[in-house]
Write a structure and sequence with these properties.
The protein is α/β, with parallel strands linked by helices. The chain has a domain of about 80 residues. The chain is built from four helices and three strands. It has a three-stranded parallel beta sheet with strand order 2-1-3. Strand 1, helix 3 and strand 2 form a beta-alpha-beta unit. The structure holds pyridoxal-5'-phosphate. Pyridoxal-5'-phosphate (PLP) binds next to helix 2.
């Protein structure tokens, strides 16, 4: 539970910042979903933009924000150059799904095209470092 700050937590954060050249701040999280949600909020707050580009088939947890096209079936995926945005389940509002730009994975040209198309709208790009085969 990270609602209250303590000295070891601060000392660890300082060590992480010292060891990771690009790290200025550390935000702890209880789960991957929570970490993703925090990163998305920070990116949106920093950029003033709302859309997030994610890759088809990549899993970013259960939170509504990116529970889109995580496990699309072949029948649902839509055209290669315009993948369908598929909510993980009922209960995810259309407005949330519309904030996600879905891009095919393993094709360097695809994110370039998506970045060009959504240049002024994207707050962040997120990818699974090691996407699992599902
Ligand atoms: C890249 C990535 N982000 C987020 C999550 C969600 O993590 P959690 O199940 O801890 O919420 C996962 C889970 O596998 C993941 O692989």
């Amino acid at each position: 539970m990270f609602g209250t700050c303590n000295v070891p937590e601060v000392e660890l954060a300082e060590k992480i910042c010292a060891l990771v050249p690009c790290a200025d701040l550390v935000q702890y999280a209880n789960s991957g979903s929570e970490a993703v949600q925090g990163a998305v909020r920070a990116a949106r707050g920093f950029t003033g933009r709302t859309k997030i580009l994610k890759f088809e088939g990549h899993d970013h947890g259960w939170a509504d924000t990116l529970a889109v096209s995580s496990k699309p079936s072949a029948a649902e995926v839509g055209p290669y150059d315009a993948p369908a945005r598929l909510p993980h389940s009922h209960g995810i509002p259309p407005g949330v799904v519309e904030e996600v730009v879905v891009c095919p994975w393993n094709d360097p040209a695809a994110p370039r095209t998506a970045l060009d198309a959504h240049r002024t709208e994207l707050a962040a790009v997120i990818a699974e470092a090691f996407p699992a085969l599902r």
